[in-house]
Amino acid sequence: MHSFWWLLCALHHVIWAATMLISIQAMPPEPPVRCDKNGCNLYNSYGVWGDRKDCHVQNVTYPTTEEELRLAVAYANQNKLKVKVVSQFSHTIPKLACPATSSGNSMLISTAKCNSSIEIDAKNLAVTVDAGIGLRRLIDAVEEAGLSLVAAPYWEGVSVGGLVSTGAHGSSWWGKGGAVHDHIVGLSLIVPAKQSEGFAKIVKLEPKDQIFNAAKVSLGLLGVISKVKLSLEPRFKRSIAYNFTDDAQIENIYMDHAKKYEFADITWYPSKHTAAYRYDNRVPLNASGDGTYDFLGFQSNSILISKSIRATEKTMDNGRSLGGKCTMAASFLGVKKLVANGLKNGLIFTGYPVIGPQGKMQTSGSCLYSTAADNSCAWDPRINGLFFYETTAIFPASKFGDFIRDVKKLRDLKPNNFCGVDIYNGFLIRFIRASGAYLGQPEDSVVVDFNYFRADDALTPRFNQDVWEEVEQLAFFKYGAKPHWAKNRNLAFLDVQKKYPNFNKFVAVKRQLDPQNLFSSEWSDEVVFGKDGVKSDGCAVEGQCICSEDRHCSPGKGYFCKTGLVYKEARVCRYSSSPPSPFSVGSGSDKNDI
Questions:
Q1: Comparing C-alpha atoms, which of 140, 187, 150, 148 is closest to residue 165?
Q2: Average pLDDT for 312-339
Q3: In b/e form, how buried is each residue of 183-220, taking b as 16+ CB within 10 angstroms?
Q4: Where are the beta strands (DSSP E) in 334-377?
Q5: Is the pLDDT of residue 19 over 70?
Q6: Do residues 266 and 250 make contact, with C-beta atoms less than 8 angstroms apart?
Q7: How many CA atoms lie within 13 A of 362 on its CB side?
Q8: Buried b vs exposed e over 72-82: b needs ≥16 C-beta within 10 Å?
Q9: Beta bridge partners of 297
Q10: How far apart are CA 162 and CA 138, in angstroms?
Q11: Which end of the chain is more exposed for a tag (fewer CB within 10 A), N or C?
């Protein structure tokens, strides 16, 4: 119990540090590409890919202009190298940006230095930017010009090229919607070409072009995005308030909520039977207020606190301590209520509503921006801080209510089993509109994100991992949700190509622009295009497969392949205190092991 009082004390200091007039800043993330005499390795911001295998490439090049980008693609084409693009950030969970092959014939192109141009066309309400420009820099530039970018992801540590190519989004069913790619009005794409064309060429695309809808969300499979043109609106402010209340009606009122508030979202804490409804609409620019949304989870944290929270969570997971996890979840929820999840009227939160300019309310990531050695983003791999999975499922709006009903059935069997997700941010529920992009959403959709504990070792099973596996399979298989392209464990992508009615149109454009598959990789061949992978011992422990045999789980540690508790077609790795029958899959479960 002492450790939980210590945790509460630590949390008090996190809040104090985030809100007082002091200059506590973050240790900035390391660059994603790091090289030595043996070549280069690409890392994501968590330091570990889904398969825990390194992404090794022979070299990386750093163009500074569009022409230098073209020459880099030409070099790869001429030398028959697999090639991928990375920016100054690397926040994708899957290996989208990894070109590595067993032959070693691969290279990376970084847009980290291709970031000099932001051209604002105030008359036509548009901005054209280099693909390597960071989101925060873009937002600040357009706001200074008296304009606003309407859609943005909640996390600002992304490049413009990266966020549009992976389908990044905020939350809105209004106007053009919450997905940034649906605000694109032009882009330039560098693709392989014939020798007579210099081995690479720049293709400039507008909405009237036949291949525009393939290029808007391209996953880096068509070529290198060099420039993006986005629509803007006159500068505006937003008014935000959270209502933390009972979760009884989520499945019945989520559509009404999204229609009533332009930037609505809902955060659901299932173990606490609590939902936080975000009331978020634009207000006139002359409305009083200069607030900021500095999301609590993206603020700088003391390294000591981040390490201690991780150590505490590991101890509880290893000790199968539901009570401990639920104490943490209750504490974290209390903190979020106290500080409005990071909303600030000025220097601190003083009350609802919080009104502020769009550029200060639409996205956050303050842990990115400084150099002090004793603070960092909480998940920085150098500090052994938070380490987690992130599952993101995108539902047709009409199916989402039934998904919530099934999750509640699973929750109600034993509510404390859901405390693990509430330690992070519960279920974040957002809204995006139907899109013309071939790899976008064909209908108005609801997006659900949830984070949960990941073990240090690939073969170490997690306490109650069957719960999250069943929720995953409910989402992706029973209700046909689509995976966010830049998040998720591999199992989420099973048969993904069958979920997009325009997938074959995208493939046709790829064959047209990249006939030699320079921009394909082992990951995209398996995950995006459905090449069969091989199931191995323990593959289900980290979501590399769905179990069909006990060996895919961790039978030596008491985890066996079982059926779901609510979704009987699910196959999950569940702990059992007694040896299974020879026909454990499909045989149900002992209630004592729930």
A1: 187
A2: 94
A3: bbbbbbbbbbbeeeeebbbbbebeeeeebbbbbbbbbb
A4: 343-344, 354-357, 375-376
A5: no
A6: yes
A7: 28
A8: bbbbbbeeebb
A9: none
A10: 14
A11: N
Q: Could you give the CA distance from residue 82 to residue 262 in angstroms, rounded to a whole number? A: 42
Distance between the two ends of the chain, CA-based, in angstroms? 25
At residue 531, what is the residue type? K
Residue type, 407: V
Order of all β-strands in the sheet with 482-483: 354-357, 237-246, 274-283, 265-269, 427-432, 445-453, 388-396, 482-483
User: CA-CA distance, 74 to 382, in Å (whole number)?
Assistant: 36
Range of weakest confidence among 25-29, 182-186, 340-344, 481-485 = 25-29
Contacting residues for 216 by C-beta, under 8 A, at least 6 apart:
164, 181, 182, 184, 187, 435, 436, 437, 440
Q: Tell me which amino acid residue 65 is.
A: T
Cα dist from 375 to 12, 81, 418, whole Å: 16, 40, 30
Looking at the DSSP bridge assignments, the partners of residue 159 are 134
**Residues pairing with 376 in the sheet:** 27, 301
Distance between CA 396 and CA 474 in Å, rounded? 14
Alpha carbon of 93 to those of 20, 222, 484: distances in Å?
A: 34, 20, 10
Positive or negative: CA dihedral 166, 170, 174, 176: negative
Beta bridge partners of 41: 34, 56
Among residues 562, 342, 385, the alpha carbon closest in space to that of 464 is found at 562
What backbone phi and psi angles, to 5 degrees, belong to 208?
Answer: -75, -15
Inter-residue contact 268 to 407 (CB < 8 Å): no
pLDDT of residue 373: 73
CB 509 within 8 A of CB 205: no
**Closest-CA residue to 514 (of 174, 116, 80):** 80
Residue located via tokens 């929750």: 411
Q: What is the spatial distance between Cα 447 and Cα 177, in angstroms, rounded to a whole number? A: 13
Radius of gyration of the chain from Cα atoms? 23
Please give the single-letter amino acid code of residue 236: F
Q: Are 295 and 359 in contact (CB under 8 A)?
A: no
Distant-in-sequence, close-in-space partners of 172: CB < 8 Å, separation ≥ 6: 150, 151, 178, 262, 263, 264, 431, 432, 433
Minimal CA–CA distance to 414: which of 459, 472, 455, 470? 470
Q: Residue 581: what pLDDT?
A: 59
CA geometry: angle at 141 spanning 138 and 144, to 5°? 150
Residue given tokens 């306490």 in the structure block: 463
**Residue 408 and residue 270 in contact, taking contact as beta carbons nearer than 8 Å:** yes
569 burial via Cβ count (<10 Å: 0-12, 13-18, 19+)? exposed
Strand partners, 110: 86
pTM strictly above 0.70: yes
Q: Tell me the sheet residues that pair with 265.
A: 278
pLDDT above 90 covers what percent of the chain? 85
586 residue type, one letter? G
HSE toward the beta carbon, residue 7, CA cutoff 13 A: 24
Q: Write out the E strands in 149-305.
A: 184-192, 200-205, 224-231, 233-234, 237-246, 265-269, 274-283, 292-293, 301-302
